[in-house]
Amino acid sequence: MATRPGAGDQRDEEPGRLYRARPRLFRRNQPLTGPPFLTAPGSDRAAAGYAGGSSGRGQVGSPGSGGRGVSRAAGAAPGGAAAPAGTAAPAGTAAPPAPRSPGRPAPAREPGHDRSAEYGAGAGRRRVRIRWWWIALPLALLLIGYPLALFAVTWTSLHRVDALPAGGPAATPGTTYLVVGSDSRTDLTPAERRQLHTGQAAGERTDTIMLLHVPSGSGPTVLVSVPRDSYVPIPGHGKNKINAAFAIGGRQLLVQTVEQATGLRVDSYVETGLGGYARLVDGIGGIDVCVKRPLKDAKAHIDVKAGCQTFDGATALGYARARYADPLGDLGRVQRQRQVLAAIASKAFSPAVLLVPWRAFPAASSGGGALTVDSGMSPLGLLSFVQAMRAVAGGGGLSLTVPVARTDLPTPNAGVAVQWNTTEADQLFAALRRDDTNAVRSLVAGQQAAGG
C-alpha cells in the first residue's frame, strides 16, 4: 500500500493532478523553469517534462490564474488521461525537454549569446537611428561660423578715424570708397624702418590714392588710380599736387579735395600705412607678381628681374613705391600699385589661405591691423569693400588711371606736376556719378591699347 509522502519528501507528480505553483515575484533575469511548453527549446527540462524524475512542480503562469498552474506528464492525453507508455508525441510536436534537478543552476551563457530565442527577435540589439540634424548642425556651424569668426577678427583689428568731413557734394548712386596708402613712418620701429628702407622723413603724405566705385546695379566695379602728383585745386589752399592736401590738412582735407575735383561723394575711407602694407603681405605668405620689365630703383631699394616671382612684404612695398627708375614715372607706379593690390586680394581670398585656419586667422588679424577706416564704416560696408577688391583682383571689375594729358606740367609752386585730360576725365567721373560703370569700358580699352 502506498504511503502518503510527507511535506519534505520528494514525490512524483501524477498525470493530470493540479498543484499550486510557487510564487515567482520579483525574480527578474533568472532562467525560465516552466513546464515544457514554457521552457526554452533544447533545455534538459523541456526534453523530459514532468513525468519521470524528481523535478518538483511544473508552473504555468497565465494572467488571472492567481499563481496556479497545470502540469502534465509527458505524453499526457487531454482531459487528464495518461497516454500509454512509449506512445510517440503527435506529429509536428516538439520533443519535450530533459529534466533538471531543483538545485541545478542555469547554464552560463556564452559570449555573443543570442537572447532572441528567449525573448523574441531583435532582443539584445539596440537600434541607433541617425537623425539629419546630427550632420546638418555641425555642417552649418562650419559653413557659417568659420567665415563669421574670420570677419570678426578682421573687424576687431581695424583702426578708426574721423575721416569724412561734413557737407560736400550731394549723395551719388552706388558706393564710392577713397583708398589711400600713406607713407607715414609713425607706426614703424627703427628696425622696421631699416628693413623696409623707408628713411626718416617726418610727416604724412599719400603714396597711393584710388577711388573704388561699387555700383548699385549690375555693372562692374571700377577702381580708378589718381596720380599723386595730379595738379588740382585744394579747398582753401589754391592749386597744388593732390597729395599735398593730406600733408596740409590730413584726411578730411584730402577727401574734400577729391570730392571737389571729381564731383563724387566719398562714402567711406580706407587707408593703409607702410608697415601695415608689408605686414599684410607677409601675413598671407607673400604674393605672386609677374614683372613686365626689370626694375631697379636705389631710392626704393628694389632690384627685381622680369618674370613671375614671389614677393615678401619688403619687396612688395618697394615695388609699389618705386617711380624714379620707371620710364612712365608716376603713371607706371600707379599701374604697379594696382597690380600689387590685386595680388594681395587674390592671395588673401585663395583657398590656400582661407581654408587653413593657422593661416587664415593670422592673415585676418594682419589685414585688419593694416587698415584704418572712417568711424562710420559698418560691417556691411567693410564686407562690400572686401568683395569689390576681390572682384577687381579676379578680373570681374575694371581698373584704370584718371586720363592724363601730360606728366611734365610746370607749376609756380609745386614743380613739375601731372595734368589731367579734362575731356576724358570728365567723361569718366560723369559716368561714375550716374552709376553707369559700363560706360567706363571704352576708356579702359583705350588705356590698355596704349599700354596703360
List the helices and strands and how they pair.
Blueprint: E1 18-20, H1 44-48, E2 68-70, H2 116-119, H3 132-157, E3 159-161, E4 175-182, H4 190-196, E5 206-214, E6 222-225, E7 231-233, E8 239-241, H5 244-262, E9 268-272, H6 274-283, E10 287-291, E11 295-297, E12 302-304, E13 307-311, H7 313-321, H8 330-348, H9 351-354, H10 357-369, E14 371-374, H11 379-393, E15 398-401, E16 404-410, E17 416-420, H12 422-433, H13 441-449
Helix pairs in contact: 3-10, 6-7, 6-10, 7-8, 8-11
What does this structure look like?
With 452 residues, this protein is α+β, with helices and mostly antiparallel strands. It has a domain at 145-449: LCP protein (Aminopeptidase). The protein has helices spanning 44-48, 116-119, 132-157, 190-196, 244-262, 274-283, 313-321, 330-348, 351-354, 357-369, 379-393, 422-433, 441-449, and strands at 18-20, 68-70, 159-161, 175-182, 206-214, 222-225, 231-233, 239-241, 268-272, 287-291, 295-297, 302-304, 307-311, 371-374, 398-401, 404-410, 416-420. A seven-stranded mixed beta sheet has the order 3-14-9-4-5-6-15, sandwiched between helices. Strand 11 (295-297) and strand 12 (302-304) form a beta hairpin. Helix 3 packs parallel to helix 10 (357-369). The longest helix is centred in the first third of the chain and has 26 residues, at 132-157. It is globular and about 135 Å long. The termini are far apart. The model is unreliable at 1-11 and 36-89 (pLDDT under 50).
